[in-house]
Amino acid sequence: MLKKLRQGLWNYHNVALIVLMPLLLLPLPLVFRQKEAECAFVLLLMATYWMTEVIPLSMTAMLPAILFPLFGVMKSSAVAKEYFKDFHFLLIGVICLATSIEKWGLHRRIALRLVTLVGVNPAWLILGFMSGCAFISMWVQNISAVTMVMPIVEAVLQQIMKAKAECAGKDNPCLQTSHEQTEVNQILILLLFSKGVQARPPCRSKQDLMMCKAMCIGIAYSSSIGGITTLPGTSPNLIFSEYLNQIYPDCNSINFGNWLMLCLPISVIMLLLTWIWLYWLFIGSDFRFLCRRGGEHTEKEKAARKVIEDEYKSLGPMSSQEIFTGAVFLVMVALWLTRSPGFIPGWASLFPHQKGYITDATVSLLLGFLFFIVPHANYSISVHPESMISWKEFQASMPWKVALLVGGGFALAEGTKESGLSLWVAELLTPLGFLPVLATITIACIIVTTITEVASNAATITIFLPILSPLAEAIHVNPLYVLIPSTLCTSFSFLLPVSNPPNAVVFAYGHVSIMDMVKAGLGVNVIGLLSVLLAVATWGVPLFSLNTYPDWAPVLPEFNSTAP
């Protein structure tokens, strides 16, 4: 009876949390009756709902539009303006490009080409797939990169494990990774995952199983590592960039070029150390393969090479659609890099009377627009020509949930500023000014990394940005010194399958257990944290002038200050 009662109560725990949290937080606005307390009520309520996900993340993001006007913090029209920013235009253009890349199969050509370059030795094969996934993740959503690469990885793994079986050497149609089969695989994986079933193919030896674990976990982690490299690579980066434009409008320190200069070395260091860590953890401590690349290949390596070569040959020559998509991609990156490099005048200086008018979003949207104008070559003269991508295809790829979530975060950030909550937080955090700056940054990064394991990356950074920027102002430290490493650490959700979508997709293939991911994730979290701290303490300092308090940040003379 008690068991049934507990089960019944658990079934309604979401409803209980939705109702109880506002009641528990209600004393804040009722007792203090100040704008700061009313805004704190909204902030804590949203943080709780975001971390527990009792309400869809995108709908929780709507709370400022409801509560700020009711509390008198902001007018409804003012709140509404915060829900669509420059960030959204940048996102739309990037998603147009990502939709075309996925539709025309350019991602598969890139991934397979990178793998063929590194070889088929298990260790080099893992590095090849990780590099391919990380590169793709620089330009598309992390979850998209994983779902693009994993079907190819699965085909190679199955071929390796069956290389010595009686069917070795025969064509196996089950291993084809065509677009249709990829979709079927993904549907089956999601069904298996929802039912808690592990679809592990039969492994011939412990070594095979360990290689499966290392490769699959490597794919999940490399998508997050690659995502931090570029501003549009992952949601937290874009949220940070737009938050900076909103709260510090005179700050022009962050652009595509200098972000790439900071984060590309971080990603390379993390990728290589993660590869070595996973190899040591799952396969062994014999690193002699680093000194030998040639030699005789085993049957399994030959089988893997055959699968990869057959897959690459099946793609045929590059189609006109792939060439156009690749060209747009290269032009977009080039324009981002040269718009305003900082050390030399960029092409944006050709418009002197519109200084600050052109952003990365302008470039993204302009080139994304081309995919709806330029027709693809596969149509008949008698038929109305179709564009490179359709609105339906774009709509299916567009992360509307993230767009609304980010809008809610911007509204929340503006509310904390208008209500004075950010100033109150700055006063509260002033004692941290007596700590060494690097210690303060480390504490912030550890807290963010811990929270992001159980909450959405986008929700985590949205919650912490309005807290960390007043902290930086309170201790008189360049806000970028605190915000950049915290933003990067938000993407380090490596411990659990539920920590982020790429982890869940890889876990659903059934090669890894939760404990495998926890053990591997702990090491990668440490690698990521140390890599980020190294970057902001060395080459990040001259890149963003982190050792000086900038003119674009407010000066709070009544607070204690310290220098980095």
Automatic annotation (TrEMBL):
Classification via InterPro entries: Na/sul_symport_CS, SLC13A/DASS
One of the record's GO cellular component terms: plasma membrane
Residue ranges of the TM segments: 12-32, 39-67, 87-106, 118-140, 259-283, 323-344, 356-377, 398-415, 435-468, 520-541
PROSITE patterns: NA_SULFATE
Record flagged with keyword RNA-binding: no
Membrane topology: Multi-pass membrane protein
UniProt subcellular location: Membrane
Chief site of localization: membrane
Coiled-coil intervals: none
Transmembrane helix listed as a keyword: yes
GO molecular function, one term: sodium:sulfate symporter activity
Keywords of the record: Ion transport, Membrane, Sodium, Sodium transport, Transmembrane, Transmembrane helix, Transport
Family under the similarity heading: Belongs to the SLC13A/DASS transporter (TC 2.A.47) family. NADC subfamily.
This protein's name: Solute carrier family 13 member 1
